[in-house]
Amino acid sequence: MKRKMFMLAVCALVASCDGASSSYTGSYVGGDNSALIQLELVDSGEGQLNGTMAVSQLDYEAGKLETTIKPITGVQNGGQLSLLAHSNSFGASDSPLSMEADGNSLLWKVPMNGMTIELVKTDQAAYRERLVAFESQLHGTDAGMIDWDNVD
Q1: Alpha carbon separation from 23 to 2, 32, 37, 125, 132 (Å, rounded)
Q2: C-alpha 125 chain-centroid distance
Q3: Contact 112, 97 (CB under 8 A)
Q4: Which fold has domain 22-139?
Q5: Could you tell me the residue ranges of all domains in the chain?
Q6: Who contacts 93 (Cβ-Cβ below 8 Å, separation ≥6)?
Q7: Residue 31: its pLDDT value, please?
Q8: Does the CA dihedral 145-148-149-152 come out positive or negative?
Q9: Residue 17 — φ and ψ, nearest 5°?
Q10: 3-state SS string over the chain?
Q11: What is the pLDDT along the chain (152 residues), one digit of tens a residue?
């Protein structure tokens, strides 16, 4: 009897561990020195994804950070995500985004240049810190970095 109960419990545990039902709900952040990307996703649990994508870029001439936000919809199949960034402008085309899950990251294969951008799952506080550091590039110069008191 104990053996049957044990086997039943193991079967129930294995059945509840469906690897394909991973939730992608959360905030993902990535980029480089030219752009910072935040992807907010909500996973319906039925393969449907919704959210927003914010792309922040530096406008050195204007001396400010510019952010473009687009709504996102899509589907996921296992670790593959097919998303669509919807255009905010009339007549502009939507942008397809193909991503692959890799642990706590999403790997975005950019079709225009073949580059892969890793978007790491993070919280809002970490995103804001990264955004502040990114924006500080606008004001970073060599001025004030030399200790003139110790120059011969």
Answers
A1: 35, 26, 20, 21, 29
A2: 14
A3: no
A4: Lipocalin (2.40.128)
A5: 22-139
A6: 87
A7: 92
A8: positive
A9: -100, 55
A10: CHHHHHHHHHHHHHHHCCHHHCCCCEEEEEECCCEEEEEEEEECCCCEEEEEEEEEEEECCCCEEEEEEEEEEEEEECCEEEEEECCCCCCCCCEEEEEEEECCEEEEECCCCCCEEEEEEECHHHHHHHHHHHHHHHCCCCCCCCCHHHCC
A11: 444 433 333 333 333 334 444 689 999 999 988 899 999 999 988 889 999 999 999 998 888 999 999 999 999 999 999 999 998 777 678 889 999 999 999 999 887 888 899 999 999 999 999 999 999 988 865 444 444 455 44
Q: List the structure tokens of 137.
A: 């590039």
| Residues whose CB is less than 8 angstroms from the CB of residue 97 and which lie 6 or more positions away in sequence, other chains included | 53, 72, 74, 81, 82, 83, 84, 85, 108
Tokens of 32: 């480089």
